[in-house]
Amino acid sequence: MTSYNSEAPVLDTYHAVVSAYSDFLTVAIHTILYERNIYPQTSFIKARKYNYPVRQSRHPKLCKWITDAVASVEVEMLKCTVAQTSVVIHAPPPNSKPLERYVFSTASFPRIQSSETLTTFASPSASDAAGSEKPPDMPLAFKPRPAEIKIFNPPPTSDLPEQFRATLARLSTSLSRLNSLPEDCSFTLAIELRDEEGVDAPIGRGDRWVAAEPGLQKERRRDGDGYRGFEGSSGDTEFDEFGIGASKKGKDLGGVRTTPVRALEAGAFRMEVWIEEGRGKFQAQVEEDDEYEYE
Length: 295
What we know:
Layout: E1 2-3, H1 14-35, E2 44-49, E3 52-57, H2 60-77, E4 82-90, E5 98-105, H3 126-129, H4 160-176, E6 186-193, E7 218-220, E8 237-239, E9 246-249, E10 257-266, E11 269-277, H5 279-294
Parallel strand pairs: 1-2
Antiparallel strand pairs: 2-3, 4-5, 4-6, 5-11, 7-9, 8-9, 10-11
Helix pairs in contact: 1-2, 1-4
């Protein structure tokens, strides 16, 4: 049985926070693929992570794809532009509709300048305890986002491994209760960017990212202008928290059934995990039942 070092990380920099997230995301992806039978379960080996038994694919090409994909997510995370990452399971072709989404929300991660990812978080001072949150020596030209002026006081060591362990246990339990998927499903990894000015999708710059299908996107409307972004998708309209304008969600976002998994918090590390079951999953099951009934 493979074993990994599960020493509690010191979350004293933003880079350490993102590194801990990437580590957990890798384990979660392997867990999802195993539990949902996306690949034969015999192709997974037993391992331990966070002092918890997990499964890891032993196929070198799949392991490399997951490692490279998570590394690409980490690059975008270090830019403080990612609101959430999701593992999306699609129906087999030619349908290929999204059936399930496993969402890892990092919207509450701190937002800092890209040059400060290795800078140690400041500890609260007496003036901070009194309610002052004005950062010292901040250039006048720099306008921080609300989260950038928060000061975190990370413990020397955290209970993050214990929280990861509890999350994996809850995730495995939730996965075992989901309805089965059709054979030959595929999966992909997607990121959703923050609804903020100056946040651009990493597409067309030599990166591996491509635009998601319209039903899994969210477009924004600014200052009364028309919607900008994807086309050909109907969805719900909502107002974003930054006051930029209304946004329109793709029809496959949110799903028709949501299962909360766990919320984690350790210093600056704040993440929520949940499962969304899409319309396509239940439509596929109805069609499969009908086909079986009338054969």
